[in-house]
Protein backbone atom coordinates (compact mmCIF):
# COMPACT_ATOMS: atom_id res chain seq x y z
CA UNK A 1 0.00 0.00 0.00
CA UNK A 2 1.06 3.60 -0.55
CA UNK A 3 -0.10 6.57 1.54
CA UNK A 4 0.95 10.13 2.36
CA UNK A 5 1.72 10.45 6.08
CA UNK A 6 3.03 13.02 8.51
CA UNK A 7 5.30 12.58 11.52
CA UNK A 8 3.91 14.26 14.66
CA UNK A 9 7.42 15.44 15.54
CA UNK A 10 10.22 15.83 12.98
CA UNK A 11 12.87 17.37 15.21
CA UNK A 12 16.38 16.55 14.14
CA UNK A 13 18.03 14.38 16.76
CA UNK A 14 21.40 14.55 15.02
CA UNK A 15 23.23 12.31 12.58
CA UNK A 16 21.13 13.24 9.55
CA UNK A 17 17.95 11.66 10.98
CA UNK A 18 15.72 14.52 9.79
CA UNK A 19 16.80 14.04 6.17
CA UNK A 20 15.84 10.37 6.33
CA UNK A 21 12.56 11.06 8.16
CA UNK A 22 10.92 14.22 6.77
CA UNK A 23 7.76 15.47 8.43
CA UNK A 24 5.66 14.53 5.40
CA UNK A 25 6.52 11.26 3.72
CA UNK A 26 5.13 8.65 1.34
CA UNK A 27 4.75 5.43 3.31
CA UNK A 28 5.21 2.20 1.38
CA UNK A 29 3.81 -0.83 3.14
CA UNK A 30 3.63 -4.49 2.10
CA UNK A 31 1.34 -7.12 3.64
CA UNK A 32 1.72 -10.86 3.15
CA UNK A 33 -1.13 -13.12 4.28
CA UNK A 34 0.27 -16.52 5.20
CA UNK A 35 -0.94 -19.93 6.27
CA UNK A 36 -0.39 -19.96 10.07
CA UNK A 37 2.04 -22.89 9.94
CA UNK A 38 4.15 -21.12 7.29
CA UNK A 39 4.21 -17.55 8.62
CA UNK A 40 7.41 -17.97 10.65
CA UNK A 41 9.28 -19.41 7.70
CA UNK A 42 8.02 -16.62 5.43
CA UNK A 43 9.05 -14.01 8.01
CA UNK A 44 12.66 -15.24 7.81
CA UNK A 45 12.47 -15.58 4.02
CA UNK A 46 11.12 -12.04 3.59
CA UNK A 47 13.92 -10.56 5.72
CA UNK A 48 16.52 -12.10 3.42
CA UNK A 49 14.70 -11.05 0.27
CA UNK A 50 14.34 -7.45 1.39
CA UNK A 51 18.01 -7.22 2.35
CA UNK A 52 18.95 -8.65 -1.07
CA UNK A 53 16.74 -6.03 -2.74
CA UNK A 54 18.49 -3.10 -1.04
CA UNK A 55 21.91 -4.57 -1.76
CA UNK A 56 21.09 -5.21 -5.45
CA UNK A 57 20.75 -1.51 -6.25
CA UNK A 58 23.59 -0.32 -4.03
CA UNK A 59 27.10 0.82 -4.95
CA UNK A 60 28.21 -0.49 -1.52
CA UNK A 61 26.17 -3.63 -0.74
CA UNK A 62 28.06 -4.31 2.48
CA UNK A 63 26.51 -1.33 4.24
CA UNK A 64 23.13 -3.08 4.69
CA UNK A 65 22.45 -5.27 7.73
CA UNK A 66 19.62 -6.94 9.61
CA UNK A 67 19.13 -6.37 13.33
CA UNK A 68 18.37 -9.10 15.84
CA UNK A 69 14.70 -10.07 16.04
CA UNK A 70 12.90 -8.54 19.02
CA UNK A 71 9.62 -9.81 20.49
CA UNK A 72 7.17 -7.57 22.35
CA UNK A 73 4.71 -8.50 25.11
CA UNK A 74 2.06 -9.43 22.53
CA UNK A 75 4.36 -11.87 20.75
CA UNK A 76 4.91 -9.61 17.73
CA UNK A 77 8.33 -10.14 16.18
CA UNK A 78 10.20 -7.22 14.63
CA UNK A 79 13.47 -6.77 12.79
CA UNK A 80 14.99 -3.80 10.99
CA UNK A 81 17.10 -3.33 7.89
CA UNK A 82 19.70 -0.67 8.53
CA UNK A 83 22.25 1.10 6.38
CA UNK A 84 25.67 1.99 7.78
CA UNK A 85 26.94 5.47 6.88
CA UNK A 86 29.83 7.61 8.12
CA UNK A 87 27.60 9.30 10.68
CA UNK A 88 26.07 6.04 11.94
CA UNK A 89 23.24 3.67 11.13
CA UNK A 90 19.89 4.57 9.57
CA UNK A 91 16.83 2.34 9.87
CA UNK A 92 15.48 2.08 6.33
CA UNK A 93 12.86 -0.66 6.63
CA UNK A 94 10.94 -2.40 9.41
CA UNK A 95 9.65 -5.96 9.03
CA UNK A 96 7.10 -7.40 11.46
CA UNK A 97 5.46 -10.76 12.04
CA UNK A 98 2.15 -9.59 13.50
CA UNK A 99 0.39 -12.98 13.36
CA UNK A 100 -3.37 -12.30 13.70
CA UNK A 101 -3.06 -9.15 15.85
CA UNK A 102 -4.36 -6.86 13.11
CA UNK A 103 -7.72 -8.67 13.20
CA UNK A 104 -8.20 -8.39 16.99
CA UNK A 105 -9.99 -5.04 16.77
CA UNK A 106 -12.48 -6.28 14.16
CA UNK A 107 -15.99 -7.46 14.86
CA UNK A 108 -16.64 -11.21 14.33
CA UNK A 109 -18.58 -10.48 11.16
CA UNK A 110 -15.63 -8.49 9.81
CA UNK A 111 -13.16 -11.21 10.79
CA UNK A 112 -15.29 -13.68 8.85
CA UNK A 113 -14.35 -11.84 5.64
CA UNK A 114 -10.68 -12.73 6.15
CA UNK A 115 -11.13 -16.41 7.00
CA UNK A 116 -9.29 -18.73 4.64
CA UNK A 117 -9.72 -22.46 4.17
CA UNK A 118 -6.70 -24.62 4.98
CA UNK A 119 -7.65 -28.26 4.41
CA UNK A 120 -10.91 -28.81 6.26
CA UNK A 121 -10.61 -25.88 8.62
CA UNK A 122 -11.08 -22.14 8.35
CA UNK A 123 -8.41 -19.94 9.90
CA UNK A 124 -7.42 -16.31 10.08
CA UNK A 125 -4.22 -15.76 8.08
CA UNK A 126 -1.03 -14.69 9.81
CA UNK A 127 0.32 -11.38 8.53
CA UNK A 128 3.91 -10.39 7.79
CA UNK A 129 4.36 -6.72 6.97
CA UNK A 130 7.26 -4.52 5.92
CA UNK A 131 7.38 -0.74 5.86
CA UNK A 132 9.63 1.95 4.40
CA UNK A 133 9.09 5.30 2.67
CA UNK A 134 9.76 6.68 -0.79
CA UNK A 135 11.73 9.62 0.63
CA UNK A 136 13.87 7.34 2.78
CA UNK A 137 14.69 5.09 -0.17
CA UNK A 138 15.72 8.12 -2.26
CA UNK A 139 18.01 9.40 0.51
CA UNK A 140 19.54 5.96 0.98
CA UNK A 141 20.57 5.61 -2.65
CA UNK A 142 21.71 9.24 -2.96
CA UNK A 143 23.99 8.88 0.07
CA UNK A 144 25.02 5.38 -0.98
CA UNK A 145 26.03 6.53 -4.47
CA UNK A 146 28.07 9.53 -3.35
CA UNK A 147 31.83 9.01 -3.27
CA UNK A 148 35.02 11.06 -3.14
CA UNK A 149 37.66 9.42 -5.32
CA UNK A 150 41.39 10.22 -5.58
CA UNK A 151 42.08 12.66 -8.41
CA UNK A 152 45.68 13.70 -9.10
CA UNK A 153 46.77 15.30 -5.80
CA UNK A 154 43.20 15.98 -4.70
CA UNK A 155 39.86 14.19 -4.90
CA UNK A 156 36.75 14.45 -7.03
CA UNK A 157 33.11 13.95 -6.14
CA UNK A 158 31.11 11.37 -8.08
CA UNK A 159 27.76 9.63 -7.94
CA UNK A 160 27.76 5.91 -8.66
CA UNK A 161 24.13 5.06 -9.28
CA UNK A 162 22.86 1.66 -10.30
CA UNK A 163 21.96 1.85 -13.97
CA UNK A 164 18.30 1.17 -13.14
CA UNK A 165 18.20 4.18 -10.80
CA UNK A 166 20.36 6.67 -12.72
CA UNK A 167 18.25 9.57 -14.14
CA UNK A 168 20.37 9.45 -17.32
CA UNK A 169 21.69 6.13 -18.58
CA UNK A 170 24.14 7.40 -21.18
CA UNK A 171 25.74 10.57 -22.54
CA UNK A 172 28.33 11.40 -25.20
CA UNK A 173 31.88 12.74 -25.18
CA UNK A 174 34.43 13.63 -27.86
CA UNK A 175 37.99 15.05 -27.78
CA UNK A 176 38.90 18.57 -28.77
CA UNK A 177 39.16 18.76 -32.56
CA UNK A 178 39.05 21.39 -35.28
CA UNK A 179 35.72 23.20 -35.66
CA UNK A 180 34.50 21.17 -38.64
CA UNK A 181 35.22 17.72 -37.13
CA UNK A 182 33.87 18.80 -33.75
CA UNK A 183 30.60 19.94 -35.32
CA UNK A 184 30.26 16.66 -37.22
CA UNK A 185 30.72 14.69 -34.00
CA UNK A 186 28.16 16.87 -32.21
CA UNK A 187 25.66 16.22 -34.99
CA UNK A 188 26.38 12.49 -34.78
CA UNK A 189 25.84 12.54 -30.99
CA UNK A 190 22.48 14.27 -31.49
CA UNK A 191 21.42 11.68 -34.06
CA UNK A 192 22.49 8.74 -31.87
CA UNK A 193 20.98 10.35 -28.79
CA UNK A 194 17.59 10.78 -30.45
CA UNK A 195 17.62 7.11 -31.50
CA UNK A 196 18.35 6.10 -27.91
CA UNK A 197 15.56 8.31 -26.60
CA UNK A 198 13.10 6.85 -29.10
CA UNK A 199 13.95 3.43 -27.70
CA UNK A 200 13.19 4.60 -24.17
CA UNK A 201 16.80 5.05 -23.00
CA UNK A 202 17.14 8.25 -20.95
CA UNK A 203 19.99 10.08 -22.71
CA UNK A 204 21.80 13.34 -21.95
CA UNK A 205 23.04 15.17 -25.03
CA UNK A 206 25.57 17.49 -23.39
CA UNK A 207 26.28 20.90 -24.96
CA UNK A 208 30.02 20.73 -24.17
CA UNK A 209 30.85 17.73 -26.37
CA UNK A 210 34.16 18.34 -28.19
CA UNK A 211 34.40 21.74 -26.47
CA UNK A 212 36.34 20.55 -23.41
CA UNK A 213 38.97 17.92 -22.78
CA UNK A 214 37.78 14.33 -22.59
CA UNK A 215 38.82 14.18 -18.96
CA UNK A 216 36.65 17.19 -18.12
CA UNK A 217 33.69 15.64 -19.94
CA UNK A 218 34.19 12.38 -18.02
CA UNK A 219 34.26 14.35 -14.76
CA UNK A 220 31.02 16.17 -15.62
CA UNK A 221 29.36 12.84 -16.38
CA UNK A 222 30.61 11.28 -13.15
CA UNK A 223 29.19 14.22 -11.17
CA UNK A 224 25.76 13.27 -12.52
CA UNK A 225 26.14 9.55 -11.93
CA UNK A 226 25.65 8.61 -15.60
CA UNK A 227 26.59 4.91 -15.95
CA UNK A 228 27.78 4.99 -19.58
CA UNK A 229 29.51 7.40 -21.93
CA UNK A 230 29.66 6.86 -25.68
CA UNK A 231 33.08 8.23 -26.66
CA UNK A 232 33.23 9.51 -30.23
CA UNK A 233 36.44 10.47 -32.03
CA UNK A 234 37.64 11.42 -35.48
CA UNK A 235 37.89 7.79 -36.59
CA UNK A 236 34.22 7.26 -35.65
CA UNK A 237 33.30 9.35 -38.68
CA UNK A 238 35.19 6.88 -40.88
CA UNK A 239 34.63 3.42 -39.38
CA UNK A 240 31.57 3.99 -37.15
CA UNK A 241 33.29 2.61 -34.03
CA UNK A 242 32.60 4.24 -30.65
CA UNK A 243 34.01 3.51 -27.22
CA UNK A 244 31.44 2.71 -24.53
CA UNK A 245 32.90 3.78 -21.17
CA UNK A 246 31.52 2.41 -17.91
CA UNK A 247 31.58 4.55 -14.76
CA UNK A 248 32.06 1.39 -12.68
CA UNK A 249 35.24 0.19 -14.39
CA UNK A 250 36.31 3.31 -16.39
CA UNK A 251 37.11 0.86 -19.20
CA UNK A 252 35.91 1.25 -22.78
CA UNK A 253 34.56 -1.43 -25.07
CA UNK A 254 34.37 -0.84 -28.81
CA UNK A 255 31.03 -1.08 -30.59
CA UNK A 256 29.65 0.01 -33.95
CA UNK A 257 27.18 2.91 -33.96
CA UNK A 258 24.59 0.72 -35.71
CA UNK A 259 24.48 -1.57 -32.67
CA UNK A 260 24.77 1.12 -29.98
CA UNK A 261 21.05 1.49 -29.22
CA UNK A 262 20.29 -2.23 -29.02
CA UNK A 263 23.40 -2.91 -26.93
CA UNK A 264 22.67 -0.14 -24.42
CA UNK A 265 19.07 -1.36 -24.15
CA UNK A 266 20.44 -4.80 -23.28
CA UNK A 267 22.78 -3.37 -20.64
CA UNK A 268 19.96 -1.46 -18.96
CA UNK A 269 17.61 -4.43 -19.11
CA UNK A 270 20.07 -6.95 -17.65
CA UNK A 271 20.74 -5.81 -14.11
Automatic annotation (TrEMBL):
Secretion signal span: none
GO biological process: mitochondrial DNA replication
One Pfam family per UniProt: HGTP_anticodon
SUPFAM superfamilies in the record: Class II aaRS ABD-related, Class II aaRS and biotin synthetases
Positions of the Anticodon-binding domain: 181-264
Source taxon at top rank: Eukaryota
Record's GO cellular component terms: mitochondrion
Protein name: DNA polymerase subunit gamma-2
Originating organism: Schizaphis graminum
Amino acid sequence: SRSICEHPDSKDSGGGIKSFSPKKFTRLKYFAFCIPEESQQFFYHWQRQRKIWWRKFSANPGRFLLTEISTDDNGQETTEIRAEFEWGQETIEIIRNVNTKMFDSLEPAEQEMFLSRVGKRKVLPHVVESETSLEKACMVFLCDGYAELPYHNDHREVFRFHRKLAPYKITFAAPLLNAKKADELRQLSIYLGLNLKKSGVSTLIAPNIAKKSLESQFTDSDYLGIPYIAVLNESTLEDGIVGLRSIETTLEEKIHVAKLTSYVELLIKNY
